[in-house]
Design brief:
The protein has 272 residues and is mostly helical. It has helices at 2-34, 37-49, 58-63, 91-102, 109-117, 122-135, 139-179, 184-193, 210-216, 232-246, 252-268. Keywords: Membrane, Transmembrane, Transmembrane helix.
């Protein structure tokens, strides 16, 4: 039993979840690129870090720096022109740009301290004063501390982006499961009763292509009757959709690896 039905069910389920996860990740990446989500998240993170929610003070000056935003258009400095904003900033570039935005005399460490004291924002002033005092007159050490400050702030931004991405992944997966009736409960029952349906499946696809979709449609998914009757079976299907959507939380790499291992185990045992 373990060498036939159980493995075929595992192969069918993991192939389905891997393909769904791949479709969801592809669509999500396309949406993130089209909507400039990474650039927007980075901008919001820097505005919060520099306490400039209206983008009219230090954050705006920073984004005008060539190291931070080499493609910026001085005629379009507003945050609405997100197409010109970067989606990634190197910590050392951020530190140099911030120092350049604050100091009035380049290379003069004593004057830099006076420039920090002249800042109007008390929150940023306190943060930079602490970094300035700990640097003890070393400009390179001051710059490294600013880089560390930036890295810490970006870790929070990255965490927020990942949490939002997980929510989007689940919603996209739920939408995909409902549109194509990818019901995990029905899929499991059918594969358990007819394990030969998954016998022809090989490794999970690395990219979306017609062959991968054709292999996916060999599984018991899709609508036999639409619109469905609102009865107990429909409620069970909704539960199956939710179960399918929850698999997106594991991500495509997890299912690819599990699919590979499952196929290897099946290949070492007797054929059903």
């Amino acid at each position: 039993m373990f060498g036939s039905t159980v493995l075929e069910v595992a192969v069918g389920l993991t192939f389905c979840y891997a393909t769904v996860a791949l479709i969801v990740s592809t669509v999500q990446e396309a949406l993130a690129s089209a909507l400039k989500l990474r650039a927007r998240g980075l901008l919001e993170g820097i505005k919060s870090m520099l306490n400039d929610p209206n983008f009219n003070a230090l954050a705006r000056t920073l984004y005008a720096h060539a190291l931070v935003n080499p493609h910026s258009n001085p005629a379009l400095p507003e945050q609405e022109h997100i197409g010109t904003k970067p989606s990634y900033i190197k910590p050392e570039h951020f530190a140099i740009a911030l120092i350049d935005a604050i100091q009035s005399i380049p290379g003069d460490y004593a004057q830099l301290g006076r420039d920090i004291d002249a800042l109007t924002d008390p929150q940023i002033k306190r943060a930079l004063q602490g970094i300035y005092q700990r640097a003890e007159g070393d400009m390179a050490r001051f710059q490294a501390s600013v880089e560390g400050w930036f890295d810490t702030a970006m870790e929070r931004v990255s965490g927020l982006y990942k949490r939002r991405s997980m929510v989007v992944s689940v919603l996209l997966s739920l939408l995909l499961a409902a549109l194509f009736n990818i019901d995990s409960i029905h899929l499991f029952r059918t594969l358990w009763a007819h394990p030969s349906l998954a016998a022809q499946l090989g490794a999970a696809p690395a990219t979306m292509n017609p062959q991968a979709l054709q292999m996916l449609w060999t599984l018991p998914i899709g609508w036999e009757q639409f619109p469905p009757a609102l009865n107990r079976e429909f409620a069970l299907s909704v539960a199956g959709w939710a179960l399918t959507a929850s698999t997106a939380l594991f991500g495509a790499p997890f299912w690819f690896d599990l699919m590979k291992r499952t196929v290897q185990v099946r290949g070492t045992g007797p054929k059903p």
